[in-house]
Amino acid sequence: MRILVVEDERDLNRIICKRLTAAGYSVDACFDGLDALDYLAGAEYDAAIFDVMMPRLDGFEALRRMREHGDTTPVLFLTARDAVSDRVTGLDLGANDYLIKPFSFDELLARIRAMTRKSVGAVTSVFTCGDLRLDEAAHSVERAGTKIELSAKEFAVLDYLIRNKGSVLSREAIENKVWNYDWDGGTNVVDVYMSYLRRKIDADFDTKLIHTVRGVGWVLREEK
User: Which CATH architecture has domain 126-220?
Assistant: First the structure.
């Protein structure tokens, strides 16, 4: 999943991005509300993390403008402003969650998982397709009870596929969801990772789950 981090304290911004990347997320970062609106207009995000007190445009006003323009991206406020009135303001403006600094990274990750589950109508962090099981909270994948080791990026691609099982996803959609703005790799990166996943997910099984739709993209489905 792709997340936008909007935090003007640069060291904290860097640390949050590093921890989210280690957890398998694709992360973009900026340092004020105006830049955040530009990022949100230019890409599709699964969630955004906003500070409140930022230069040029604060988090409350950035969220207000987002919602006025119909942007429903889930937003979690991560801020030192702990007054009840601030929390009420943020939630009333359309925030999905509100977490006070200092905070636990484990709690932040859990809240992101919960927030993104709600946005797709899921009630659990476990997704399945046939005998394939992906657990976002445990960051684990199994097929027919056998654990499969994936890199962070492989996990991210599979996560996107399994959340959209049965739907054909284009190369551009996968690249935009899983790789951030800083990516400068080759144009066949998605093809390479789909090859990695096929080798790990399908090679040892008669029933194949990852299918190519020629000229369109890929789909994860169990063929009867």
Answer: Orthogonal Bundle (1.10)
Please report, in tens digits, the pLDDT of each residue of the chain (224 residues total). Answer: 889 999 999 999 999 999 998 888 889 999 999 999 999 998 889 999 999 999 999 999 999 999 999 999 999 999 999 999 999 999 999 999 999 999 999 999 999 998 888 766 666 789 999 999 999 888 899 999 999 999 988 998 999 999 999 999 998 888 888 887 666 555 688 899 999 999 999 999 989 999 999 989 999 998 75
Domain extents in the chain: 2-119, 126-220
At the topology level, CATH places domain 2-119 in: Rossmann fold (3.40.50)
Model-level pTM? 0.73
**Rounded Cα distance, 165 and 178, in Å:** 16
